[in-house]
TrEMBL record:
UniProt-listed Enzyme Commission number(s): 5.4.99.-
CDD domains (UniProt xref): PseudoU_synth_RsuA_like, S4
Organism: Ligilactobacillus acidipiscis DSM 15836
Annotated ranges, domain Pseudouridine synthase RsuA/RluA-like: 42-176
Stored InterPro entries: PsdUridine_s_RsuA/RluB/E/F_cat, PsdUridine_synth_cat_dom_sf, PsdUridine_synth_RsuA/RluA, PsdUridine_synth_RsuA/RluB/E/F, PsdUridine_synth_RsuA/RluB_CS, RsuA_PseudoU_synthase, S4_RNA-bd_sf, TruA/RsuA/RluB/E/F_N
Family recorded in the similarity comment: Belongs to the pseudouridine synthase RsuA family.
Classification lineage: Bacteria, Bacillati, Bacillota, Bacilli, Lactobacillales
Transmembrane portions of the chain: none
Keywords: Isomerase, RNA-binding
Protein name (database record): Pseudouridine synthase
PANTHER family assigned to the protein according to its UniProt record, in alphabetical order: PSEUDOURIDINE SYNTHASE FAMILY PROTEIN-RELATED (PTHR47683), RNA-BINDING S4 DOMAIN-CONTAINING PROTEIN (PTHR47683:SF2)
Entry-linked PROSITE patterns: PSI_RSU, S4
Length: 221
Protein backbone atom coordinates (compact mmCIF):
# COMPACT_ATOMS: atom_id res chain seq x y z
CA UNK A 1 0.00 0.00 0.00
CA UNK A 2 2.89 2.37 0.73
CA UNK A 3 4.58 1.58 -2.61
CA UNK A 4 1.25 2.19 -4.36
CA UNK A 5 1.03 5.65 -2.73
CA UNK A 6 -2.13 4.82 -0.75
CA UNK A 7 -0.72 5.88 2.66
CA UNK A 8 -0.42 9.43 3.95
CA UNK A 9 1.09 10.69 7.21
CA UNK A 10 0.05 14.14 8.40
CA UNK A 11 -1.39 14.87 4.97
CA UNK A 12 1.71 13.84 2.98
CA UNK A 13 1.97 10.70 0.86
CA UNK A 14 4.57 8.26 2.20
CA UNK A 15 6.65 6.31 -0.32
CA UNK A 16 9.51 5.09 1.87
CA UNK A 17 9.07 1.75 3.66
CA UNK A 18 9.83 1.67 7.38
CA UNK A 19 8.83 5.26 8.18
CA UNK A 20 8.10 5.48 11.91
CA UNK A 21 5.00 7.20 13.28
CA UNK A 22 3.82 8.03 16.80
CA UNK A 23 0.41 8.32 18.42
CA UNK A 24 0.46 12.03 17.61
CA UNK A 25 0.68 11.44 13.83
CA UNK A 26 -2.39 11.30 11.59
CA UNK A 27 -2.16 8.20 9.39
CA UNK A 28 -4.50 7.74 6.42
CA UNK A 29 -5.03 4.77 4.12
CA UNK A 30 -7.07 5.40 0.98
CA UNK A 31 -8.22 8.67 2.57
CA UNK A 32 -9.49 7.02 5.77
CA UNK A 33 -7.94 8.16 9.06
CA UNK A 34 -6.72 5.27 11.22
CA UNK A 35 -7.30 5.12 14.96
CA UNK A 36 -3.99 4.78 16.80
CA UNK A 37 -4.14 1.85 19.24
CA UNK A 38 -2.07 3.76 21.81
CA UNK A 39 -4.24 6.85 21.59
CA UNK A 40 -5.56 7.88 25.00
CA UNK A 41 -9.33 7.50 25.23
CA UNK A 42 -11.81 8.37 27.98
CA UNK A 43 -15.40 7.18 28.45
CA UNK A 44 -18.25 7.31 30.95
CA UNK A 45 -20.12 4.01 31.31
CA UNK A 46 -23.48 3.64 33.05
CA UNK A 47 -22.73 0.24 34.58
CA UNK A 48 -25.76 -1.97 35.10
CA UNK A 49 -26.14 -4.14 38.18
CA UNK A 50 -24.73 -7.64 37.76
CA UNK A 51 -21.59 -6.51 35.90
CA UNK A 52 -18.02 -6.84 37.21
CA UNK A 53 -15.83 -3.70 37.32
CA UNK A 54 -12.84 -5.38 35.71
CA UNK A 55 -11.31 -6.09 32.31
CA UNK A 56 -11.95 -9.85 32.71
CA UNK A 57 -13.47 -12.30 35.19
CA UNK A 58 -12.29 -15.82 36.00
CA UNK A 59 -15.91 -16.89 36.58
CA UNK A 60 -16.86 -15.77 33.06
CA UNK A 61 -19.33 -13.14 34.30
CA UNK A 62 -20.10 -10.01 32.29
CA UNK A 63 -17.46 -7.27 32.77
CA UNK A 64 -17.43 -3.55 32.00
CA UNK A 65 -15.09 -3.97 29.01
CA UNK A 66 -17.72 -6.14 27.29
CA UNK A 67 -19.55 -2.90 26.43
CA UNK A 68 -16.52 -1.67 24.43
CA UNK A 69 -15.98 -4.50 21.94
CA UNK A 70 -15.59 -2.06 19.03
CA UNK A 71 -12.98 0.12 20.78
CA UNK A 72 -9.46 -0.80 19.54
CA UNK A 73 -7.68 0.42 22.68
CA UNK A 74 -7.33 -1.77 25.77
CA UNK A 75 -9.27 0.19 28.38
CA UNK A 76 -10.06 -0.53 32.02
CA UNK A 77 -12.20 0.95 34.81
CA UNK A 78 -10.93 3.67 37.16
CA UNK A 79 -11.67 2.13 40.54
CA UNK A 80 -14.48 -0.33 41.14
CA UNK A 81 -18.21 -0.54 41.65
CA UNK A 82 -19.63 -3.59 43.40
CA UNK A 83 -21.23 -6.31 41.28
CA UNK A 84 -24.70 -5.37 42.55
CA UNK A 85 -24.13 -1.59 42.33
CA UNK A 86 -25.05 0.39 39.23
CA UNK A 87 -23.90 3.78 38.04
CA UNK A 88 -21.04 5.84 36.70
CA UNK A 89 -17.72 4.18 35.89
CA UNK A 90 -14.88 6.08 34.24
CA UNK A 91 -13.10 3.98 31.59
CA UNK A 92 -9.72 4.82 30.05
CA UNK A 93 -6.30 3.56 28.94
CA UNK A 94 -4.58 6.56 30.57
CA UNK A 95 -2.85 4.80 33.46
CA UNK A 96 -1.24 7.94 34.87
CA UNK A 97 -4.56 9.79 35.16
CA UNK A 98 -6.33 6.69 36.52
CA UNK A 99 -3.77 6.23 39.30
CA UNK A 100 -4.01 9.88 40.33
CA UNK A 101 -7.82 9.87 40.34
CA UNK A 102 -7.81 6.83 42.62
CA UNK A 103 -5.22 8.25 45.02
CA UNK A 104 -6.81 9.37 48.32
CA UNK A 105 -4.88 12.65 48.47
CA UNK A 106 -6.81 14.13 45.52
CA UNK A 107 -10.18 13.78 47.28
CA UNK A 108 -12.28 13.12 44.18
CA UNK A 109 -15.90 13.25 45.36
CA UNK A 110 -18.31 10.51 44.36
CA UNK A 111 -22.05 10.72 45.03
CA UNK A 112 -24.17 7.64 45.62
CA UNK A 113 -27.92 7.21 46.02
CA UNK A 114 -28.88 4.32 48.27
CA UNK A 115 -32.23 2.71 48.94
CA UNK A 116 -32.05 1.68 52.60
CA UNK A 117 -34.13 -0.26 55.06
CA UNK A 118 -35.82 1.94 57.61
CA UNK A 119 -36.04 5.73 57.63
CA UNK A 120 -32.87 7.46 58.91
CA UNK A 121 -33.28 9.97 61.70
CA UNK A 122 -31.53 13.34 61.57
CA UNK A 123 -29.05 12.29 64.26
CA UNK A 124 -28.09 9.22 62.21
CA UNK A 125 -27.44 11.36 59.15
CA UNK A 126 -25.40 13.69 61.36
CA UNK A 127 -23.20 10.77 62.41
CA UNK A 128 -22.46 10.07 58.75
CA UNK A 129 -21.50 13.73 58.28
CA UNK A 130 -18.87 13.37 61.01
CA UNK A 131 -17.59 9.95 59.95
CA UNK A 132 -18.47 6.54 61.38
CA UNK A 133 -16.53 3.44 62.38
CA UNK A 134 -16.31 0.98 59.48
CA UNK A 135 -14.78 -1.63 61.77
CA UNK A 136 -13.01 -1.69 65.12
CA UNK A 137 -10.08 0.45 63.95
CA UNK A 138 -11.07 2.34 60.77
CA UNK A 139 -13.27 5.43 60.70
CA UNK A 140 -14.67 6.95 57.53
CA UNK A 141 -14.02 10.53 56.56
CA UNK A 142 -16.95 12.96 56.92
CA UNK A 143 -19.59 12.55 54.22
CA UNK A 144 -22.16 14.85 52.73
CA UNK A 145 -25.55 13.24 53.16
CA UNK A 146 -29.19 14.03 52.45
CA UNK A 147 -32.49 12.25 52.95
CA UNK A 148 -34.08 12.38 49.50
CA UNK A 149 -37.38 10.59 50.00
CA UNK A 150 -39.18 8.12 52.26
CA UNK A 151 -41.67 5.30 51.73
CA UNK A 152 -43.43 4.82 55.05
CA UNK A 153 -45.51 1.89 53.78
CA UNK A 154 -42.44 -0.11 52.78
CA UNK A 155 -40.32 1.42 55.56
CA UNK A 156 -37.55 2.38 53.15
CA UNK A 157 -35.80 5.60 52.20
CA UNK A 158 -33.53 7.07 49.52
CA UNK A 159 -30.35 8.61 50.89
CA UNK A 160 -27.70 10.59 48.98
CA UNK A 161 -24.13 10.15 50.22
CA UNK A 162 -21.03 11.96 48.88
CA UNK A 163 -17.60 10.61 49.82
CA UNK A 164 -14.05 10.91 48.48
CA UNK A 165 -12.75 7.59 49.82
CA UNK A 166 -13.08 4.23 48.13
CA UNK A 167 -12.75 1.59 50.81
CA UNK A 168 -14.25 -1.87 50.29
CA UNK A 169 -18.08 -1.73 50.41
CA UNK A 170 -17.71 1.70 52.01
CA UNK A 171 -21.16 3.18 51.43
CA UNK A 172 -22.87 -0.06 52.45
CA UNK A 173 -20.75 -0.29 55.60
CA UNK A 174 -21.37 3.37 56.53
CA UNK A 175 -25.14 3.07 56.23
CA UNK A 176 -25.21 -0.28 58.01
CA UNK A 177 -23.24 1.27 60.89
CA UNK A 178 -26.13 3.69 61.54
CA UNK A 179 -28.70 0.90 61.35
CA UNK A 180 -29.88 1.18 57.73
CA UNK A 181 -28.68 -1.66 55.48
CA UNK A 182 -28.53 -0.88 51.75
CA UNK A 183 -31.05 -2.63 49.50
CA UNK A 184 -29.99 -0.93 46.27
CA UNK A 185 -27.08 1.36 45.36
CA UNK A 186 -26.19 3.61 42.45
CA UNK A 187 -23.24 5.94 41.83
CA UNK A 188 -24.63 9.17 40.39
CA UNK A 189 -21.48 11.28 39.98
CA UNK A 190 -17.70 11.02 39.79
CA UNK A 191 -16.16 14.43 40.43
CA UNK A 192 -18.07 16.78 38.13
CA UNK A 193 -19.11 13.95 35.76
CA UNK A 194 -22.68 12.62 35.82
CA UNK A 195 -24.97 10.22 33.99
CA UNK A 196 -27.11 12.83 32.22
CA UNK A 197 -28.42 11.52 28.90
CA UNK A 198 -27.36 7.91 29.57
CA UNK A 199 -29.42 4.84 30.41
CA UNK A 200 -28.13 1.61 31.94
CA UNK A 201 -25.55 0.00 29.64
CA UNK A 202 -24.89 3.19 27.66
CA UNK A 203 -21.53 4.93 27.39
CA UNK A 204 -20.14 8.09 25.83
CA UNK A 205 -16.78 9.69 25.13
CA UNK A 206 -15.63 12.49 27.39
CA UNK A 207 -15.32 15.88 25.74
CA UNK A 208 -11.93 17.57 25.45
CA UNK A 209 -13.08 20.07 28.07
CA UNK A 210 -13.99 17.25 30.49
CA UNK A 211 -10.63 15.52 29.95
CA UNK A 212 -8.78 18.77 30.61
CA UNK A 213 -10.84 19.42 33.74
CA UNK A 214 -10.13 15.91 35.08
CA UNK A 215 -6.41 16.41 34.59
CA UNK A 216 -6.57 19.77 36.36
CA UNK A 217 -8.29 18.13 39.35
CA UNK A 218 -5.24 15.96 39.98
CA UNK A 219 -2.62 18.56 39.05
CA UNK A 220 -3.37 20.86 41.99
CA UNK A 221 -1.55 18.86 44.68
Amino acid sequence: MIIEGRVRVNGKTVTELGVKVSGEDAVEVDGHLLEQSDQKVYFILYKPRGVISAAKDDKNRKVVTDFFQDIPQRIYPVGRLDYDTSGLVLMTNDGDLANKLMHPRYHVNKTYVAKVKGIPESNELERLRHGVLLDKTHKSSPAKTKLMSVDKKKNTALVSLTIHEGKYHQVKRMLKSVGHPVEKLKRETYGFLNLDGLTSGDFRKLTNQEITALKKMVAKK
